[in-house]
Amino acid sequence: MKHRLGFLLQKSDSCEHSSSHSKKDKAVTCQRVSQEEVKKWAESLENLITHECGLAAFKAFLKSEYSEENIDFWISCEEYKKIKSPSKLSPRAKKIYNEFISVQATKEVNLDSCTREETSRNMLEPTITCFDEAQKKIFNLMEKDSYRRFLKSRFYLDLASPSNCGAEKQKTPKSSSDCASLLPQCA
């Protein structure tokens, strides 16, 4: 099991640099995750990515497949929606556009031409909702593709297995598992 999950023991790039993105960014530290929580991740992509440890696990899985651009885009959109200052919207929108939407983007996401064009038009006067359609399309793409692969992966199955997360503690479904060794750690 250590060999299969070895990549999770390393710090991910996103965690190492989280403080450089924003002072409000929190480092992900998942010391204990209950089996109940891990099982909820299988109910919906939303349950997975709105749980701090679930998001870290999904991101690590995508990174292992060299396909983390979709979740990175989704996270960037969520952070963008929290911007309060109108003067910060335009520069941040342009940064997201150049990183994920532009044809020459460093982490180009897979969008249909209509959504890409609509998002490009939205860049003329960026608003808090300018990425909503693109974000929705990418969420649906992750839900139908990478999320399903994640749930079938040894990575998720090992996290969901009581025998791999402190079996001696697994007497009740609500007991916590010390899965820290299976999840990416960010200090």
UniProtKB/TrEMBL annotation:
Residue ranges the record marks as coiled coil: none
SMART domains per record: RGS
Domain RGS: 44-160
Keywords attached to this entry: Lipoprotein, Palmitate, Phosphoprotein, Signal transduction inhibitor
PROSITE patterns: RGS
Gene Ontology terms: biological process: negative regulation of signal transduction
Domain of life according to the entry: Eukaryota
Its biological purpose: Inhibits signal transduction by increasing the GTPase activity of G protein alpha subunits thereby driving them into their inactive GDP-bound form. Activity on G(z)-alpha is inhibited by phosphorylation of the G-protein. Activity on G(z)-alpha and G(i)-alpha-1 is inhibited by palmitoylation of the G-protein.
Name of this protein: Regulator of G-protein signaling 4
Phylogenetic lineage: Eukaryota, Metazoa, Chordata, Craniata, Vertebrata
